[in-house]
């Protein structure tokens, strides 16, 4: 049965491997993927450990639904204590790795210790072994995957790999699979590098048994029809996430020049239609009927030829709007470079935009610039910085490779004001000043500034209030600039995403940007048809609460609290200079925002300092582990 | 009129839903290894090609079968195996130029049976890389694609002068 599948405990120091079945009670409490990873992280890690030490864990988990032919059910969740933030490290990756891991007989991996020399873990049809990766060390993420396939003479091997950024312990190095899939956030690639772990490769031909295959087949077709009937999915199928730009760069919900303007002037060359020139087709992850990734070819220029996948809206911000570059080719090259080096596109883009603004404001000494011309719109310096940071080349590259907080300490206190980060992690290039709900989400996210933890994107649609009440279960304003009821929106989305990440489906195929997408009710049926476990909507929401509260407990134990659930000061001080009349002139009002946080805590049944009460812990069955 | 499983690789997004629904329907488990259809990928150049039995008009598998176990279902057009006759010699697997006949669990010879005339892979292929359509429609489709290319060329010539 699908719920009692295996976890492998892999100790890189001793080379020992143990395997165990996952218990039904754990499944019912945490499902799989992110949920189970968070359980393991909270219970198996001592407080205060060095994230780059051998005692840190690297957790890799498929979701409970991984493998079904619907809703992009190929997601894999990777977790550890984050070397970037010191808080929960957790990142979700699509592609084809997680189903292959299941076909190889495992659902979860817990990797501990540190290998003596570069190594990779090989998982094949029920067997786990550790191999020498000396010949892979130094290779980029594409070459590494190719070499592993060639070594085992099997084209169908799927690998999670790190590039040079992970090897060089860049604190926001990512984990990559395929041409573009990345577990980008919180530095999981850095944790792999610290363990001398170049890759986890897998190939499987074993069955994944589902409880009711015929019912599941019918229902998967229904699910795929449900998601592809949404306008959002149809737009995604053609333009990918780049379509978001058409909205945000019209309304004024986008950051340009770090955080100076909220529209990109003359930005028409970044419109999604421009991609037609480079696109040869779209590409989907496992089990996805939306296929939101471009397959593109760049034939000319100094970096050509490039074949790549993407780019995401994130990269459009990172190498476009935030650094004031206005050509699609810049985005395509930037996307290729971060994929090759294995570094988080969002973090590196955020940090480059910050350093450019510091340069403009005269807060960077000439020595500090390392001879680079850090002017806005200089695409060559963007590419150069991606390389220097990934390779830790020069003083500047080396300083920026450690992330915002250590860099602020080295560059100077004044630089902090311009750093658009929360808990040490960069925010997306979205401007949340006009939208309190979105601002609350990034402030309270357990992994630092992030739009994939609780963002109620449908708030931007101005939906009828009756519909909002039906979805979120309480009255709230349909005006996205209002504070009314928005804490509940964020709380509800946070629970939904925690469950989504634990069953292993794609966030774009639940209520993120599409109102009529599958949510708790549909998940409940899918769980029953795959595992025979009956978990109702209220129970699923409680599982969401359990996962988020476990993350909260982990963070609190590491010294985080309400003081860290904050926005950059600029959100309160500088009103938006541009945009639609409803958006222009907006900033976040501190008192109202504090009330939002209060409400959000009380929905979670945490106290005023963001600490879960004993009663909450008991209700959710979470042990109060303080060490 | 007879329908055919028509593959248009240009539309394939590589999601492998076809493989999964095939294995769930035929084997009642999720295991693409035993799917009758498989998407062959050249990941680093973005080429995805679904491969499945072509249901030949003059099937080589039928020709080489020493037991006469291969036959055509006249209603669906599917080339099928009579398991009462099949001895599992695998000559059909050896000689099929497409990998359309395959060795499944426990050495059983198997192949695409067009799901009794309503192929699930087609039903679930959102980008329509797989279609189950009449021969005449295929002809028209191919000609239309060719004409499209021709018209693009004509446009270029016209604008050049």
Task: Tell me about this structure.
The complex is a heterodimer of chains A (627) and B (161). In chain A, helix 16 packs across helix 18 (486-503). Chain A is an alpha+beta fold and 627 residues long. The mean pLDDT of chain A is 97. Chain A has three domains: 2-203, 4-Layer Sandwich (Aldehyde Ferredoxin Oxidoreductase,  A, domain 1); 250-426, Orthogonal Bundle (Aldehyde Ferredoxin Oxidoreductase Protein, subunit A, domain 2), CATH 1.10.569.10; 436-620, Aldehyde Ferredoxin Oxidoreductase Protein, subunit A, domain 3. The longest helix of chain A is centred in the last third of the chain and has 21 residues, at 537-557. Chain A is built from 23 helices and 17 strands. Chain B has 161 residues and is α+β, with helices and mostly antiparallel strands. Chain B has five helices and eight strands, in the order βαββαββαββαβα. The N and C termini of chain B lie far apart (46 Å). Chain B is 32% helix and 20% strand. Classes of the chains: A alpha+beta (627), B alpha+beta (161). At the A-B interface, helix 7 and strand 13 of A face helix 1 of B.
Annotate the secondary structure layout:
The complex is a heterodimer of chains A (627) and B (161).
Chain A: E1 6-11, E2 17-21, H1 24-30, H2 33-44, E3 58-62, E4 76-81, E5 88-93, H3 97-103, E6 106-112, E7 119-124, E8 127-132, H4 141-152, E9 158-161, H5 164-167, E10 175-177, E11 181-183, H6 188-194, E12 197-203, H7 213-228, H8 231-239, H9 243-251, E13 279-283, E14 293-298, E15 306-309, H10 313-318, H11 328-341, H12 345-360, H13 379-391, H14 394-400, H15 404-411, E16 421-422, E17 425-426, H16 436-444, H17 465-472, H18 486-503, H19 520-531, H20 537-557, H21 570-573, H22 590-604, H23 614-620
Parallel strand pairs in A: 1-6, 7-12
Antiparallel strand pairs in A: 1-2, 3-4, 3-6, 4-5, 7-8, 9-12, 10-11, 13-14, 14-15, 16-17
Chain B: E1 3-7, H1 17-27, E2 38-42, E3 47-51, H2 60-64, E4 70-72, E5 79-81, H3 91-95, E6 101-103, E7 109-111, H4 120-123, E8 130-134, H5 135-160
Antiparallel strand pairs in B: 1-8, 2-3, 4-5, 6-7
């Amino acid at each position: 049965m699908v719920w009692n599948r295996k976890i492998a405990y892999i100790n890189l120091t001793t080379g020992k491997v143990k395997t165990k079945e996952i218990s039904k009670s754990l499944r019912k409490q945490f499902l799989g993927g992110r949920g189970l990873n968070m359980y393991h992280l909270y219970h198996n890690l001592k407080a205060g450990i060095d994230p780059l030490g051998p005692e840190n864990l690297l957790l890799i988990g498929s979701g409970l639904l991984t493998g079904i032919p619907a809703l992009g059910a190929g997601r894999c969740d990777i977790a550890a204590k984050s070397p970037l933030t010191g808080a929960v490290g957790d990142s979700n990756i699509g592609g084809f790795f997680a189903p292959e891991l299941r076909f190889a007989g495992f659902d979860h991996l817990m990797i501990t210790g540190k290998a003596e020399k570069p190594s990779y873990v090989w998982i094949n049809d029920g067997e786990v072994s550790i191999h020498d990766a000396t010949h892979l060390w130094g290779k980029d993420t594409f070459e590494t995957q190719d070499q592993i396939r060639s070594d085992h003479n099997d084209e169908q091997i799927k690998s999670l790999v790190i590039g040079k950024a992970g090897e060089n312990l860049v604190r926001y190095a990512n984990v990559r699979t395929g041409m573009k899939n990345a577990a980008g956030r919180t530095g999981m690639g850095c944790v792999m590098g610290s363990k001398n772990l170049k890759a986890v490769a897998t190939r499987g031909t074993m069955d994944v048994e589902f409880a009711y295959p015929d019912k599941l087949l019918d229902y998967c077709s229904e699910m795929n029809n449900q998601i592809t009937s949404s306008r959002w999915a149809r737009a995604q199928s053609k333009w990918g996430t780049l379509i978001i730009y058409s909205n945000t760069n019209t309304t004024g919900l986008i950051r340009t020049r770090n955080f100076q303007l909220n529209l990109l002037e003359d930005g028409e060359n970044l419109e999604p239609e421009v991609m037609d020139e480079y696109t040869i087709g779209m590409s989907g992850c496992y089990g996805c009927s939306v296929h939101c990734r471009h397959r593109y070819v760049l034939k000319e220029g100094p970096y050509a030829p490039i074949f790549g996948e993407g780019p995401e809206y994130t990269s459009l911000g990172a190498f476009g709007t935030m650094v004031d570059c206005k050509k699609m080719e810049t985005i395509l090259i930037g996307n290729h470079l971060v994929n090759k080096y294995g570094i988080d596109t969002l973090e590196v883009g955020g940090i480059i935009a910050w350093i450019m603004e510091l340069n403009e404001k005269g807060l960077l000494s000439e020595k500090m610039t390392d001879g680079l011309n850090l002017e806005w719109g200089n695409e060559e310096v963007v590419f150069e910085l991606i390389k220097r940071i990934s390779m830790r080349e020069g003083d500047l590259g080396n300083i920026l490779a450690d992330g915002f907080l250590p860099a602020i300490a080295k560059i100077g206190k004044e630089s902090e004001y311009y750093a658009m980060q929360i808990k040490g992690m960069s925010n997306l290039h979205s401007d949340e000043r006009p939208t309190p709900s979105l601002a609350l989400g990034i402030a309270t996210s357990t992994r630092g500034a992030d739009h994939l933890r609780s963002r109620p994107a449908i708030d931007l649609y101005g939906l009828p209030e009756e519909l909002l009440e039906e979805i979120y279960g309480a009255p709230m304003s349909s005006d996205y600039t209002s504070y009314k009821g928005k804490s509940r929106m964020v709380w509800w989305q946070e629970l939904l995403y925690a469950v989504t990440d634990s069953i292993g489906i794609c966030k774009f195929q639940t209520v993120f940007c599409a109102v009529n997408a599958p949510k708790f009710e549909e998940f409940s049926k899918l769980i029953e048809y795959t595992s025979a476990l009956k978990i109702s909507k209220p129970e699923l929401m409680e599982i969401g609460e359990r996962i988020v509260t476990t993350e909260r407990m982990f963070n609190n134990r590491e010294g985080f609290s309400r003081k860290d659930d904050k926005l950059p000061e600029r959100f309160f001080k500088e009103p938006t200079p541009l945009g639609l009349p409803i958006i222009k002139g907006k900033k976040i009002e501190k008192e109202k925002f504090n009330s939002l946080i209060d409400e959000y805590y009380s929905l979670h049944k945490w106290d005023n300092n963001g600490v879960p009460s004993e009663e909450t812990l008991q209700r959710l069955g979470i042990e109060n582990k303080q060490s | 009129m007879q329908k055919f499983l028509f593959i248009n690789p240009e539309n394939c997004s590589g999601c492998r839903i076809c493989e999964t629904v095939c294995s769930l329907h035929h084997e009642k488990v999720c295991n693409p290894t035993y799917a009758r259809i498989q998407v062959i990928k050249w990941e680093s150049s973005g080429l995805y090609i679904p491969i499945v039995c072509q249901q030949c008009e003059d099937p080589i598998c039928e020709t080489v079968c020493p037991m006469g176990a291969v036959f055509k279902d006249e209603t669906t057009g599917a080339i099928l195996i009579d398991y009462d006759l099949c001895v599992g010699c695998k000559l059909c697997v050896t000689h099929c130029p497409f990998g359309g006949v395959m060795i499944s669990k426990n050495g059983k010879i198997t192949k695409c049976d067009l799901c009794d005339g309503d192929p699930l892979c087609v039903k679930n292929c959102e980008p329509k890389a797989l279609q189950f359509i009449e021969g005449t429609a295929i002809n028209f489709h191919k000609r239309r694609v060719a004409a499209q290319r021709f018209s693009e060329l004509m446009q270029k010539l016209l604008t050049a002068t």
